[in-house]
Every structure is written in C-alpha cells, then in structure tokens.
Amino acid sequence: MENTPNYNLKKPKPTDKINIQDINENMDIIDAEINKKAEQIDIDSLAGVGRTAETVKKNAEDIENLSEGMTELTASLYQNTKEIEELDKVTQNIGIRTETVESQIIDLNTKTEKILGVKQYGAKGDGITDDTDAIQNLLDTLENGESIYFPKGIYLVRGLTIQDVEKFRMFGDGWGSQLKLMDGSDSNVLNIINSPRFILENISINGNRDNQTNPHGGVYIERSEFSIISKAEICFCKNYGLRLTGVTNETWEGTDEINIDNCYIHQNDGSGLEINDTHDHSVSACNIEFNEGHGIHLTDCSCLNILDSIIVSNDKIGIHAQNSSRLNINANQVCLNGENGIKCIGGKQYNITNNVFHSNGRLDNGYFESGILVAYTSKVIVSGNQSVDIDLDSKTQTYGLETYSVSELIIIGNDFTPNLITPTMIDADTNYIAYGNNGLEDKNSITDKINELESRLNTLEEINK
C-alpha cells in the first residue's frame, strides 16, 4: 500500500486487496480539500485576472460533476470489492475441495494399489489367445492381501493354481468375465490350495466339457478355510462344478467355514457341489441345476447350512448326505431331480424344515424314489415341508417321506399328499413321533399319550366298580 504525495491518499498496488474503508477515507479528504478551495475563490478577483464569472461557474459545475463521478466510482469500487470478496471465498472453497479430492485420490490409490489387472500382465481375454502363462505368472508372484481383477472377456487357460496365499481376492465384472478351459486340457479350471481367507466373486468358470477328454472339474479347494464364494457361475465341467475337500493332519482339518452365496452351478457332468470331510459351511441363495450327478453331494461333513436355494433337474439326487451330522436344510426348492429329492444315509442330527420337494424321481431308473429319504441315522426333525408329486398325469415321486431304521424321528406339520404310491413309507424299525401331518397319522404325540392315559383311567374305573 502506497500514499499520494500531496494529500496522503491511500493508493493500493494491483496486488493489494481493496478495503472499502480506505476508499471512504480518501473521499473524505478530497471533499474537505474541495470545500477549502471553494471558500478561497473570489469571483470578482478571478474576473479581474482574466477569468469571467461564467468561467468560475463552469469550474464549480465541473467540481460538482467530479464529486458525483467520485460518488459513482466509490459505489462501483464497493461493488467490485464485494465481488472480489465473494471470489476469494469461492477460491478458498475450491482450494479446500481440491485438497479433499486430492486426499480422496490418494486414499483411493491406497485402497486399489493392490488390485492387479490381468490384462496389465499380458492376458488378452479375447477367447482366442492362450492366457495361461500370463495369468499363472501373476498368480505365482501374488502376495498376501492382493487382488486379481479380470475385466470382461474370455480368458482361455489350461488350468490355474493359487497356492500358499492368504486373503487374496479374485473377481471380475460379473459373468462376462470368464475363465474357460482350453480344449484337451489336463487340469481343473481353478485350483485353490492352502490359501485361507480368500474371496472369489463376480466371475464365470467354464469347463468346456464338450472339448475335454479327461474328467476335470471347475473349482477345486483344499485347505483354504474362512473364505467366501459369491455371485460366481460354474458350468460345463467334465466332472464336478465346485469341490471343497478337507485334508486331515495331526491337529486340524482344513477347508472349514466357507460361505457359498448367490452362485449358479449348472450343466456339469458330475455333481454341482461336492463337500468332502469338511465342516461349518453355508450354502445360501444358490441355483444348482441340470448337473448330471447330484445337485449337492456331502460326505463325512458336519455343521452345514443349506438355505433358500433352488436345486432342480439334476440327474441324480438333489441333496445327497452320507455319514454327516448336524445339517440344517431349510427353505429350499428341491424339485424334478432324477432320483430322490433328499437322501440322508448314516450320521445323525438332520433338520429338514420348510422345504418344497416335488416331482423328483423323474428319470424312472427302476427304483422307488422319494421326496425325502432318511435311513440308518438318528435324531432327525422333518417339519413344515411340502413333499408331493404335483404332476397329476405321470407322477414319479413314489413317497413323500421314506424311512429305514431311524431313531428319534420327529415328523410335524408336513404335507405328504399326493405321491405316486402312498404319502409315506415308514418301516417298523423307525421310532418316531408324528403330529399334524397331511398323509400321516399322529403317533406317540401328546394327544396320543393323553388318550392312552384316559383309556387306562377308564379301565381302572371299570375295575373299581
């Protein structure tokens, strides 16, 4: 800020911020000086030195006009100052927002810096190129916690393996991102071994079964517990679609606690889902259908939930459980499978509740096939199910419920009518309680006990008469 030499007016530099108070003070000084000059002017004397009254009058008018002009200038400067202040505020906001965006970009980079896109490492995804080496080289150098991203495309591979990596994530852009086994390959599409806490999601696995000689599967998982498989498609494999296998050593069994959610497993030559010698899994909201083996095949498993899934049109059994225990099978649609809807053999503690089993046994392989078959087991609850054959012209489901040598069986509130032969077939070696079922008389229920006690009481009264 500078000052003028005569009247000490404040004179801002181009880079100085304009202050309206400084302008007001300048105008006050100018106004005072004009008044002083006006008082000193003697019109007659001015005329005597060659100036006329008219000239003086003209000067006075010029001074008045100057004053009005200065007033307008002051107003204009004031408006400009307000606009500059508003511009400063906007600039400050832009600076703040810029810093925020920059911090968000830094944060986003931090979050995504471990995401490795396969195309950046040489994969083409064009459905023609063999992408095996490019992707496998990336998987071989994968570190704990890193993610592998597959943009949309068809990635031809001879088989891939992820081993000894924790907390990795493999994902794509939905089922448009497809891993497809090349013709004549000698491996599963994807093997995950000793790699706990992984996530596999939003990707398609295609076994290309029509062009394979050896019976390999889709996704094989071994010793990789606490993991998630979500929104994946697994299809067209020469063997199973998805297999979870536990390997026992001296202290633990691996591949426990895997959640399989919203997956579509279909049209595989073997079973859709195989779970062998593992525990504590959850299968929910899945479609498992048109597989040439079982829909779900469980062997030596425990503590599994199969919930809210559609298991239909598989050539063998919808859900086949062998020597397993503590299974909760609830709210599923199990229909149109080639053999039984569900078959539980051996083991114990099966809860089969609130499911729909209908029109199973459709392949007519010469055996009696039921909606629910339970045999050589104990502590079973069958409750709230509808197990019927709704095809009135050509029924294939022989019984709604079939049992052999089952102890502690509770049958409550089911609908077993109609079926091909009879609603139920319960052998003499089955010890059960039944109450409130359509197609099965009550037995050993509380009502039966009350009726039995009343009958005994009546007998005693007759004796005492």
Automatic annotation (TrEMBL):
Limits of the Rhamnogalacturonase A/B/Epimerase-like pectate lyase domain: 118-186
Residues covered by the Right handed beta helix domain: 253-416
Pfam families tied to this protein: Beta_helix, Pect-lyase_RHGA_epim
Gene3D superfamilies the record matches: Single-stranded right-handed beta-helix, Pectin lyase-like
SUPFAM superfamilies in alphabetical order: Pectin lyase-like
Coiled-coil intervals, chain numbering: none
Stated name of the protein: Endopolygalacturonase
Taxonomic source organism: Maledivibacter halophilus
